[in-house]
Amino acid sequence: MKRMNNKRGTLVLFTGSSGVGKGTVMGELYKLSDKIKLSVSNTTRPPRKGEIDGVHYNFVTTEQFKKLIEEDGYLEYAGYCGKYYGTPKRQVEELLDAGYDVFLEIEVKGGLQIMEKYPEVLSIFLLPPSMEELETRLRGRGTESEDVIQERLRQASEEIKYKNHYKYRVINDDAQRAAAEVFDILNNYKDSKEN
Ligand code: 5GP
């Protein structure tokens, strides 16, 4: 897996509330570069329809999740709407060593942990055009109950308060445009590190 001649990749902290369209923007980013990878998180929440274990998440039990905490196996982890989510350390390190730019698609509490550990991290907060639009998108997904939607909207208003902790804020008014903006930010960051 290791490609020794490559430069180490860039770690990108990519945060945005549930429903803002992080997945769609990531899909557009993959079209722009084959050097971009998303870190696959562990979670204790059940899979949504269509989600594949090992691709969208590693779906684990609470016991399995806690075991990896004890082994110091997470770069960060957090509780979100009653479930655990965490970034396995080893996978991220391997991908960075192999020269990939690794995106951590994670919520704010985990994001703040990453900023503490890596103050230099390229941090990007993806914003909805408006809270009304976010609600429409969450409902449009059709995968969550009303309770869960309300909880996620509450969580979103809390999370957005932290947007200024991130180096960049990008509005997802259109996934292709937002991905192009994120890609420019990434390339400028890499150029600035090289010079
Ligand atoms: P969802 O249940 O909608 O897939 O994810 C809920 C929230 O958890 C999203 O904001 C998502 O970005 C975040 N998330 C996913 N993986 C991780 C992770 O490894 N760590 C943290 N802290 N948050 C995560």
Short description:
With 195 residues, the protein is of the alpha/beta class. The chain has helices at 22-32, 62-70, 89-97, 108-117, 131-141, 146-160, 175-194; strands at 11-16, 36-38, 42-43, 58-59, 74-80, 83-88, 101-105, 122-127, 168-171. The chain has a 5-stranded parallel beta sheet, sandwiched between helices.
Strand content: 15-25%
Number of helices: 7
What's the arrangement of strands in the largest beta sheet? 2-7-1-8-9
Question: What profile does the largest beta sheet have?
Answer: 5 strands, parallel
- Shape summary: globular
CATH topology: Rossmann fold
**What is the N-to-C succession of helices and strands?**
EHEEEHEEHEHEHHEH
Name of the top-level CATH class: Alpha Beta
Going by CATH, the homologous superfamily would be P-loop containing nucleotide triphosphate hydrolases
The total number of structural domains is 1
Class from secondary-structure proportions: alpha/beta
**N-C termini distance:** 28 Å
Using the 3D structure, state the CATH architecture.
Answer: 3-Layer(aba) Sandwich
**What small ligands are held by the chains?**
guanosine-5'-monophosphate
Query: Mean of residue pLDDT?
Result: 93
Q: Outline the low-pLDDT stretches.
A: none
Radius of gyration (Å) = 16 Å
